[in-house]
Design goal:
The chain has 343 residues and is α/β, with parallel strands linked by helices. Helix content is 30%, strand content 25%. It has 11 helices and 15 strands. It is globular, with a radius of gyration of 20 Å. Bound molecules: NADP nicotinamide-adenine-dinucleotide phosphate (NAP).
């Protein structure tokens, strides 16, 4: 089987391919033939050595896949999974591969109506947005939301979940050429370069601000997201995209992002009745919570309440071009890698 590997931290020259023999599942694990692997912004940051935790180099990235169960490890029989099942898996790492071993509890059966594309686009983005709004954020019907990278993976997932949950308004910042796309998802588009999103959010909520602000940017941007909140509002700090400048690693941008990220003062937070959550689904430990959320998302997908926006599917040999597409800010929705077997 072939896998994508990051051989070192760096630009696209850090990407290589590895040929290895098919692994055997240990007890409670399954072997999956991968059809699609989702690309996440975190994969780009991992390649640049700007993300943690990650395994030591060389390693195969890839948090999420969809595919077909090929072999069951001991103890999996009787749990509901059988060979031949179509599944989606939040595999944790190693998804950029033709085959993968994953814990059986991280595999979720797919209804026939759900394509491998839609399934692979689901776990990370929808789970992250769902977790922030409903599990951490106590989302209530009529709440308002501010989301950045609104046209991207998490952004499009947030827009759809917001609609399904009954949000009153979603403000979405993105690059100017994505305005129509962002509006088509029902969001109030804000040009990330020329508009002041704090001012827009306040003005269009009668001066109050939003209930939920989802910030994956970091640096000074994070304090601005906090300022866009109303009393009782919640900020979710869930990324540091400001650390990334193009496809090559930039230590300067990373340092600037870290040094300018605010240190929140609990007394000031107390007086303004605001909360800040740190969110990293990759290090989330409570499997039962996660399982409930993925199961409910697969249900929403089956019912048509959500429908992942897949922008482009690249064959896995074109992984560098696929990641460059994200670096170039071209994606509108999710980008996937195709690992399906070719005869
Ligand atoms: N903590 C967690 O558990 C978790 C889980 C999922 C995602 N995240 C974070 O959420 C963010 C979105 O992730 P995603 O996978 O859905 O990616 P994405 O939003 O699809 O990423 C690509 C988009 O990000 C925007 N962007 C902002 N800064 C950028 C930069 N320096 N270089 C290139 N593009 C940049 C661009 O859109 P515009 O130009 O339109 O802004 C681009 O099209 C990322 O920061 C990611 O790390 C965190």
């Amino acid at each position: 089987m072939r896998s994508v590997v990051y051989t070192k931290r760096g630009g696209m020259d850090a990407i290589d391919f590895l040929e290895s023999s098919t692994p055997t599942p240990a007890p409670e694990e399954v072997l999956i033939e991968v059809h699609r692997a989702g690309i996440n912004f975190a994969d780009l940051m991992m390649r640049q050595g700007l993300y943690s935790p990650v395994p030591p180099f060389p390693f195969t990235p890839g948090y999420e896949i969809s595919g077909v169960v090929k072999k069951l490890g001991q103890g999996v029989e009787g749990t509901g999974l059988i060979v031949g099942d179509r599944v989606v898996s939040l595999c944790g790492m190693g998804g950029y591969s033709e085959q993968i071993i994953t814990p059986a509890e991280r595999c979720f059966k797919l209804p026939e109506s759900i394509s491998f594309d839609a399934a692979a686009a689901l776990p990370v983005t929808y789970l992250t947005a769902h977790h922030m709004l409903t599990y951490l954020g106590n989302f209530q019907q009529g709440d308002s939301i501010l989301v950045h990278h609104a046209a991207g993976g998490v952004g499009t997932a947030t827009a759809q979940l917001a609609k399904a949950l009954g949000a009153s308004k979603v403000f979405g910042t993105a690059s100017a050429n994505k305005a129509e796309f962002v509006r088509s998802l029902g969001m109030r588009f804000i040009d990330r370069e020329i508009e002041d999103f704090v001012e827009v959010c306040k003005r269009e909520t009668n001066g109050s601000g939003v209930h939920h602000a989802l910030d994956p940017v970091g640096g000074k941007h994070m304090m601005r997201s906090y300022k866009a909140l109303r009393s009782g509002g919640r900020l979710y700090a869930f990324g540091g995209s400001a650390a990334v400048k193009g496809s090559k690693r930039s230590i300067l941008s990373a340092l600037r992002m870290v040094l300018t990220t605010p240190k929140f003062n609990p007394f000031k937070m107390m007086n303004s009745n605001k909360a800040v959550f740190g969110v990293h689904m990759g290090t989330w430990k409570d499997e039962a919570v996660l399982k409930n959320q993925v199961t409910s998302l697969v249900g929403m997908l089956e019912d048509g309440c959500i429908s992942p926006v897949v922008d482009k599917v690249f064959r896995f040999e074109e992984v560098a071009a696929a990641q460059q597409y994200l670096h170039d800010r071209k994606n509108r929705g999710k980008v996937l890698l195709d690992f399906s077997p070719r005869n």
